[in-house]
Structure formats: C-alpha cells, structure tokens
Specification:
Layout (H helix, E strand, L loop, with lengths): L1 E5 L6 E6 L6 H7 L4 E7 H13 L5 E7 L8 H13 L7 E6 L1 H13 L6 E5 L2 H7 L4 E6 L2 E8 L4 E5 L8 H18 L1 H15 L3 H21 L14 H11 L6 H18 L5 H13 L12 H8 L11 E2 L2 E3 L2 E2 L3 E2 L2 H12 L1
Parallel strand pairs: 2-9, 3-4, 3-5, 5-6, 6-9
Antiparallel strand pairs: 1-2, 7-8, 10-13, 11-12
Bound molecules: nicotinamide-adenine-dinucleotide and glycine.
Length: 359
C-alpha cells in the first residue's frame, strides 16, 4: 500500500492506494472516532463490496443507505434519503459517513456529511477509476441542479481516502475509459512527462495492467493533492483542474444528466479546449493532433453531440462557476503540460471552435 498526503494544515488527510485494502479494518478504525457509521452506496456497488466494508465495521452501530445509480440521481431530492437515514437512526455529530462508490456517491455523500448537523466526519472509498484519481480527493462535494451541473455544494474534506485498486476489476470498459479522461487531464495541465508516459502506456492501462493502473492512479493523486494543497477553494490554480469542463458541463446539462458519462464529456470538452488553444496561437496543430489521438486511443469520444448547436452551447456555458460578471472564462492550454488560469476569450474564436466541431 502507498500512502499520499493531502496537506491542508489541521485538515490534512491520507490517500491510501493499494490492492486489497478495502479489507484492512485498521484503516477504518484509525479514522472513525465515534461509535456510529453510515455507509452510503449505490445498487451495483452494494452488491459487490458492501459486505466487505461492513465486515470492518462490526464494532460500530452501522446503518446503510443504497441510492439509485447515475448522474440523474445526483440531486437534492435523492440526497434527502441520506439525511432521513441519519435522523431515523438518531446519528449525532460524531457519526462518520462512509461514501462507497463512484464520483456521484462520493460527491453526494460528502455534501450530506458537510450539511448534516453542520458537518460530520466522512471517509471516501472510491470504486471507479474516475473517483480514485479525481473526485474522492480535494473536498469538492455537491449535487446538480436542473439548470447547472454541480451548482449546489460545499468544500468539505474527508478524513481519508481508501482507494483499493482491486475494485476496478469489476468496472466496465466504458467506465474505465471515462476515468482515463481525468488521468489524461493531469498530463495536459501540469505534467508533460506523465502525458508522454500515458502515450507509451495507454494499451497497458486499457488492458488493466496492474502496475500501469497503480502508477496512473498514484501520479494522478500526487498531482491533484499538490494542486489542492496550494489552492483548496479554487481562488487560483485549482481552476486548472477544470480543463475542458465548461464545455463538458454544457454537454451533460444540455443533453440530460447521465446520457454522457462525465469522463466522456470531459474528453470531448478537452478536445474543444485544445482546438480553441490552437486558435489562440498557443498550441500547435501537432499538439492538438497528439491530444485528440490519445483520447481516441483511450476509447473516448472526441466530438460533441450534433443536437447541441453553438448558440445552445454558449447559453449553457454561461452558467459556470468560473464565469465573472457573465463573461465566460475557460481553462486553456499554453502547451501540453501547461494550463492557463481562467481566461476570457474572444467570442468569435469560441464560436469558430464550436462551429468547427459541428462540421
Ligand atoms: P458514477 O459515480 O456514476 O459511477 C459510475 C458507475 O459505475 C455507477 O453505475 C456505479 O454503480 C458503477 N460502479 C462504481 N464502482 C464500480 C465497481 N468497482 N465495479 C462495477 N461498477 C461500479 O461515475 P464516476 O465517473 O465515478 O463519477 C462521476 C461524477 O463525479 C460526476 O458527478 C462528476 O461531476 C463527479 N466528479 C467530481 C469531482 C470532484 O472533485 N468532486 C471530480 C470529478 C468528477
Ligand atoms: N475536479 C475538479 C476539482 O477538484 O477541483
């Protein structure tokens, strides 16, 4: 097992990464302070891993809530099921919430933990590649609103992250690829050497080579932990983690939550951001070709849905947390391995990118 640290003063916490660590009860005991624990999970994950997690919690008063699956259920109505269970079981402020699942469960569980009695401790047990490399680390929690993705939320850090690489064996190929979109992101925004490694190892990752996957997860978490430690609440550099996300969120909201996987939308959005970066004079044609080729090799989509015309895209992109006074601001690339902070862009150029992708 490898242990990384997210360094945030008295809110610092470890990320445990390794094979078979879901069963290590010492990790739970180390981070559960009270006598009550609530496990929040979803149907598929419950069938696969809930018993193994509960086995570690025999000495606690335990409750569980199994939520429906998918992005379309990441909302305020469904999150009430978590609050209901906490209240019915008379769980208090020292109860620990354990989020066992993909990014949807992690984001919702974390947000419920942030809100319940104004904050109870929580543990992230991410079970998708995307959640292990991104969403479980850094304390962004929340739910979607019909008018905008992740628009209701809080920064709230977990006590620890337990990323068992074995659980990825049951993940389907489409979900694995979706996770790779966020892995590629780290190479693009701040780690050109990692981008090169990904170019050399994409097939190993897709065939679930254990060593390659473990390295990709670790390197991603190192990158994420460094960014979060520098800028926990996204006053600056953390925004670079949103490369491609303004386009992606427009796709997810515009087409309907759950139609595209988040990672798929991020892959498309990043190709659009790369195209715009080229039009800004920053990336070369060959940089953009390399980026698109890597997403394709990761078996990710690169073209936005035909049904979103540029007008609709712009409308959706105007609802984004990075925007200032109604101006769309994007993370773009100066080079492979170097992202900009949020920048305003010439609307004509942005329209050209949106148009060019339609053709
Ligand atoms: P997800 O949570 O919807 O999980 C994908 C699917 O995989 C689900 O159906 C789930 O049941 C299934 N699954 C999970 N683990 C499994 C396993 N081990 N074996 C078999 N099936 C398994 O999707 P996701 O890609 O994990 O997360 C996407 C969400 O994460 C989005 O809502 C996105 O906004 C959010 N996100 C948040 C952050 C953040 O910083 N908080 C960062 C990136 C993404
Ligand atoms: N996934 C974006 C962030 O954590 O800031």
């Amino acid at each position: 097992m490898n242990t990384l640290q997210v360094k945030l003063g008295n809110r610092s916490y470890p990320i445990y990464i390794g094979s078979g660590i879901l069963d290590q009860s010492v990790l739970y005991a180390r981070h559960i302070k009270g006598s009550q624990a609530l496990v929040v999970t979803s149907n598929t994950v419950a069938a696969l891993y809930l018993d193994a997690v509960l086995e570690n919690l025999r000495s606690y008063k335990v409750a569980k809530v199994i939520l429906p699956e998918g992005e379309q259920f990441k909302n305020l109505e469904i999150i009430n099921q978590i609050f209901d269970t906490l209240l019915v079981n008379k769980f208090g402020r020292s109860a620990t919430l354990i989020a066992l699942g993909g990014g949807v469960i992690g984001d919702m569980g974390g947000f419920a933990a942030a809100c319940y009695q104004r904050g109870i401790p929580f543990i992230q047990i991410p079970t998708t590649l995307l959640a292990q490399v991104d969403s479980s680390v850094g304390g962004k929690t929340g739910v979607n609103h019909p008018l905008g993705k992740n628009m209701i939320g809080a920064f709230y850090q977990p006590q620890c992250v337990i990323a068992d690489t074995d659980v990825l064996n049951t993940l389907d190929d489409r979900q694995l690829s979706a996770g790779l979109a966020e892995v590629i992101k780290y190479g693009l925004i701040r780690d050109a050497e990692f981008f090169g490694w990904l170019e050399d190892n994409m097939e190993a990752l897709l065939s679930r080579d254990k060593k390659a996957l473990a390295l990709a997860i670790e390197r991603s978490c190192i990158n994420k932990a460094e960014v979060v430690a520098e800028d926990e609440t996204e006053a600056g550099v953390r925004a670079t983690l949103n490369l491609g996300h303004t386009f992606a969120h427009a796709i997810e909201t515009g087409i309907g939550y759950g139609e595209y996987l988040h990672g798929e939308a991020v892959a498309i959005g990043t190709c659009q951001a790369a195209d715009l970066s080229r039009r800004m004079g920053w990336l070369s044609d060959s940089d953009v070709d390399k980026i698109i080729a890597l997403f394709k090799r990761a078996k990710l989509p690169i073209n936005p849905p035909d049904s979103l015309n540029p007008e609709r895209f712009l409308q959706l992109m105007s609802v984004d947390k990075k925007n200032v006074d109604g101006e769309i601001r994007l993370i773009l690339l100066k080079a492979i391995g170097l992202a900009t902070l949020p920048v305003g862009v010439d609307e004509k150029l942005l329209r050209t990118t949106l148009e060019s992708y339609r053709n």
